[in-house]
């Protein structure tokens, strides 16, 4: 196992390796690939925080909790609400900011503020040949033929190993509240969520729990604004609606999908058009489902080894196996995308040593 403590040591490890490397940050996402473990959690520490510019720079192994604590002291936050997978997957360790960005881990607030990658201003990383590369900076700009900032976010370490990230943070809201619509079926719930998101009332999260019969809309901001928007949404949507004034715990549990932590079987993450969600669920054969992102993200619980992709058939989206074995973790790529992916990997990791086989 390799545990570099600096970017230079990381570059040495990758340059000198003679075989595949299994890249790991905090080890909380349950990803396992063949290769010599390369743990980056030792490359840690916040190197710059400018509250006035709402910018933080941190080494990739820095715990997310450390960054959240630092920015919270200035009444700011990581607005993309990164998921903590430990309860769902039964893992230990500490989620790192490099792992979050490498996997583009985004929570319920994605529908209103964007994904993790949208807050990534710059990166430093080591490519598959051991070369240190820097792209972007503390302002949004791109100075190469590739938008390396966006490429690294979601590449899961297959194009390079992050050593430092520059992030935009946002102010924390004064308060929040959650509207709970009761008794809607899946089709009616997705329609209500779409109507709320299409309104001018700035919903920051939209979810549906078929088991509890609850459809959730979160509103954040100044207290007077939250109160006004909550009442306007109640009038807009009608029906049986209650309001929860302190719902931070509810949304933390929703973000981390803790409802499926103690069930046997596989857990899938399905991205789709919100309007297609109920039909996908109907033919999925899933044992349990939870809708997030107004129906654009569906968490599904299935029997162990179940081929969910075969059950879903053709649709505009993809399914990722988050917990389980027997199926590829990521949706197999079609021929055109596979050619592009192969070309990128040949450019950034020509030896094919970084998280080999993880993404097909």
Written description of the protein model:
It is a single chain. The chain is α+β, with helices and mostly antiparallel strands and 360 residues long. It folds into three domains: 171 residues, 2-Layer Sandwich (Uridine Diphospho-n-acetylenolpyruvylglucosamine Reductase, domain 3); 81 residues, 2-Layer Sandwich (Alpha-Beta Plaits); 66 residues, Alpha-Beta Plaits (2-Layer Sandwich). The chain is built from twelve helices and 17 strands. The strands form five sheets. The protein has a five-stranded antiparallel sheet with strand order 3-4-8-6-7. Strand 3 and strand 4 form a beta hairpin.
How is this structure best summarized?
The protein is of the alpha+beta class and 360 residues long. It is 28% helix and 26% strand. The chain has a five-stranded antiparallel sheet.
């Amino acid at each position: 196992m390799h545990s570099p403590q600096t970017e230079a040591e990381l570059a040495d490890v990758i340059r000198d390796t003679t075989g595949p490397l299994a890249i790991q940050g905090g080890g909380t996402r349950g990803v396992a690939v063949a290769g010599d473990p390369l743990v980056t959690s030792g490359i840690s520490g916040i190197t710059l925080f400018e509250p006035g510019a709402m910018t933080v720079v941190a080494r990739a192994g820095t715990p997310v909790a450390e960054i959240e604590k630092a920015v919270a002291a200035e009444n700011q936050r990581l607005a993309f609400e990164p998921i903590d997978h430990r309860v769902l997957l039964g893992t230990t360790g500490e989620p790192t900011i490099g792992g979050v960005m490498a996997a583009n881990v985004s929570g319920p607030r994605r529908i209103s503020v964007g994904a993790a990658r949208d807050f990534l201003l710059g990166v430093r990383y080591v490519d598959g040949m051991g070369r240190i590369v820097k792209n972007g900076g503390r302002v949004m700009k791109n100075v190469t033929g590739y938008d390396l900032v966006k490429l690294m976010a979601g590449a899961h370490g297959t194009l390079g190993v992050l050593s430092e990230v520059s992030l935009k943070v946002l102010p924390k809201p004064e308060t929040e509240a959650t509207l709970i619509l009761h008794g809607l079926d899946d089709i009616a719930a997705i329609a209500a969520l779409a109507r709320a998101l299409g309104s001018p009332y700035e919903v920051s999260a939209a979810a549906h729990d078929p088991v509890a019969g609850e459809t959730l809309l979160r509103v954040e901001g100044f207290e007077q604004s939250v109160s006004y928007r909550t009442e306007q949404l109640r009038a807009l949507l009608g029906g049986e609606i209650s309001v929860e004034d302190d719902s931070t715990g509810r949304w933390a549990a929703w973000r981390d999908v803790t409802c499926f932590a103690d069930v046997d079987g596989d857990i899938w993450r399905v991205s789709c058009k919100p309007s297609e969600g109920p039909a996908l669920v109907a033919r999925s054969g899933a044992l349990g489902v939870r809708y997030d992102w107004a129906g654009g993200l569906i968490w599904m619980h299935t029997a162990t080894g179940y081929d969910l992709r075969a059950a879903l058939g053709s649709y505009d989206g993809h399914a990722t196996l988050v917990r389980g074995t027997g199926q590829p973790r990521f949706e197999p790529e079609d021929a055109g995308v596979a050619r592009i992916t192969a070309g990128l990997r040949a450019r950034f990791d020509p030896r094919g040593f970084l998280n080999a086989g993880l993404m097909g």
